[in-house]
Amino acid sequence: MSEWLTSLQTDTPQEGFELAITLARKGVAYTQPAAEVRDMLRPEYASNADSLTLASQVVAIHFQTVAQANNYWK
Amino acid sequence: MSEWLTSLQTDTPQEGFELAITLARKGVAYTQPAAEVRDMLRPEYASNADSLTLASQVVAIHFQTVAQANNYWK
Amino acid sequence: MSEWLTSLQTDTPQEGFELAITLARKGVAYTQPAAEVRDMLRPEYASNADSLTLASQVVAIHFQTVAQANNYWK
Amino acid sequence: MSEWLTSLQTDTPQEGFELAITLARKGVAYTQPAAEVRDMLRPEYASNADSLTLASQVVAIHFQTVAQANNYWK
Amino acid sequence: MSEWLTSLQTDTPQEGFELAITLARKGVAYTQPAAEVRDMLRPEYASNADSLTLASQVVAIHFQTVAQANNYWK
Amino acid sequence: MSEWLTSLQTDTPQEGFELAITLARKGVAYTQPAAEVRDMLRPEYASNADSLTLASQVVAIHFQTVAQANNYWK
Fold it and tell me: Do chains B and C touch, with touching meaning 3 or more CB–CB pairs less than 8 Å apart?
């Protein structure tokens, strides 16, 4: 896969949160590399509450990592 | 997305807990940006015990991050 | 919501565990504020093994936070 | 509930693991205090692979806490 | 249960990963002590993708603990 | 199993993320050693959104470990 992650440092907590979202999606993309399959899955999954909560959980785990990497932007 | 997260610092543990709830909801909103879809999902999911527990779990993970960012409000 | 969390410090590990239980329940209550709905859900969920395990998991995550806040009561 | 947890310190890693199991079970017992209900649920759940994995996961989370409390028994 | 865990220290990361697998299995064995029941469950569960992912998750949590106990084998 | 993990150190965050993916897959391979069974499971699971999210979650947990081992590549 081409270069997509060069640093965990971000300027603000919000950028850190958005990096966590990228990390969560990349975790999916490495398992299902076909973008058209991922796009096909999105409508169903984006309208299922538990699927959304599960996705939010992965973001939360990555946000822990990113926040620590940035010393919580203190 | 417009600016919504500028700091992980809060004055009290309870405000930190409420920030964790915001973070959990934002994790959903980035995946399903349509507020009307999220609102439509809420009644079913808010009356399902396992869905509520899953949501509470995401809050718990974010609360770990926020609590650490605030040195546990010691 | 009125004030319910002023400190993560507890006198004993057991009180810390009980605070973790409170935190897990509050995570639910912020999503489903109606106590009568939560009470209605309890019988089914309290007699389902996987639901109980899931609830115990949320407690475990919060207990990590509370234990660290108290330096493991060492 | 009567006193059941006075310390997270254990003499050995194995005792720490067994404390983690106790903590996982207590997380269930606070939600379902009736021992006869918990006993009734056990046969089904103890013969379901995913239920057992879920239970093992809660133990793993608590073991993190106990291991850290004991400085990994180094 | 007889002695099975005397230390979290391992010589290499791979041995640490294999200890994490042992810990995940022991978490199951304490809940379902009958080896013949666990053996009976294995074929179905070892050919179900989500069951395997769940099992891998428990290993991941334990590996965090073991890696930290070994200061990441640095 | 032959040697496959000699270090948690990587040169870049992206290599660390890819190591996390390897660790997640190895967690599966220790439970289901038959590569042909794992290959058989892949099509179904790689086209199920929740299965992909679950897999991404395991990667997230391992990435926490790898990132910490590398001091967040700071």
Answer: yes
